[in-house]
Amino acid sequence: MSEGSNPKPLPPLHRSDSVKGSWLATGRVSDDPTNPARPQTFRAPSELHFAAISVVFFAAIMDALIWWDYFAGDSDRLTRAIVFLVVMLLLLVLFALLQRQRSGVDAEKVWIRTLGFKYTEVKFSDVKEVQYGAMFLKINDGVNQLNLPFETTDYSLALLRLTEELHSHGFTINGVAPDSADWHLVAQRRAHAWAQWVFINNRTYYMNHARAYDYLFSLETLPVTRAINLAPPNAKNFPSPSEIQYQKGNSHLTAKRYMRPNLGPRPAVKADKKEEKRLSKRSRSPKMPREILGSRIILNAGIVLSVAFALVLMITVSEYRSGIEGDIASIIAPAAFLLMGLILFISGLLWRVGANEDEMWSRFGPFYRKSMRFSEVSRVSKTYRGYVFYTAGSQFRFATHGWGLGLIYLRMLWEMRVRWLMVPGLDFFDPATNQQVHQIRTELFQRLYREHIKYYDSHPDELELITNLSQPLKP
């Protein structure tokens, strides 16, 4: 199809589960929880909940201290205590409203309920304009406008429906109207990019559901230009199961594909002699599953604060009993810091990060656990503390200040070698995407080698493997 021709019309999405046709043929009414086209409902981001809880907790502590002073005889604190109490109650109400905030998407529409009161929806069949960016999508039906964040929420169904609507009716895309001469090219690029986004974020599902895969491929209209390009399973751009061996029993990674000897020299690893001597002691295989402390900084800070303010509290209590110090605040302040230190100490002990051959996880004792499968990672970005890995609607932050999880580096090198990943904040067609992914790939290789330098120096075959994994994919 030429860039200037009209997209081939496709039958519209069926609106009822009872209708037999392309809906059922593509498996989109399945109860499969991995189905990207299933209707979904989302809560407010967890960051908002955490911020609300933190503010309420701080206000409660301040209000308790003020009331303590008031009952201790300071009558001037009454007004301030009442104000803080009212503020705390308002924050509790706000937190309760945040708990009620919902957004969702189904075959007909995308909607949002703000703070439990205002309900706004936009039907896909009524969309008049779409504005897209690397991290958001704004859809407008002429009356209402909704902003869809793609970094923390899985809106695969919204992209599927918008791509279908591009085949059935036109709408303005980033200011380019359907009657414009450039609209067809822009529409084809968007259909291509949105189909790619859906596939990359739901790769496991589509590789296991051929009819849904074929339907998604039919929505993609641009010529195939990249290695991910929605090629059918086991085509030349994808290694077949017989070409990749991943043996779980002995933690062994081997490959018969992509392990070509002419991939270029191994990237240089810079390390001074002192660092090499320290790291050379780490001869343990990176393929071994392991779980480590999530943050030694938090644990050490908790120990220091607990010990220091326990001593201070002992001194202030002794002085208060002897009458040297008569202000009760001299006991409350160090007691509060001691409590903070104990909280940090317990948090440091309970917070763990680990990885095995299939997934990486973080947990807080028996109370909380979050995991992410390596095969489902669709985007990766670098932060000042480490890396953030994304799936459709979820993210996993991994700090690199610790040692012991070389398996994460190894598995991500593998995933970045056999398929394309995207970078948050960059559009699919941005050439900087491949540059940043390759930079992250090189850094992962260097960290993996430095942390297990003795092991890889004594296993040249394994060193050649990770060297080949660190090379960029070629379209």
TrEMBL record:
It comes from the Bacteria. Residues 269-278 have a biased composition (Basic and acidic residues). The chain crosses the membrane at residues 48-68, 80-98, 297-316, 328-351. Keywords: Membrane, Transmembrane, Transmembrane helix. Residues 1-20, 260-287 are annotated as: Disordered. The keyword Transmembrane applies. This is Uncharacterized protein. It comes from Boudabousia marimammalium. The lineage of its organism: Bacteria, Bacillati, Actinomycetota, Actinomycetes, Actinomycetales.
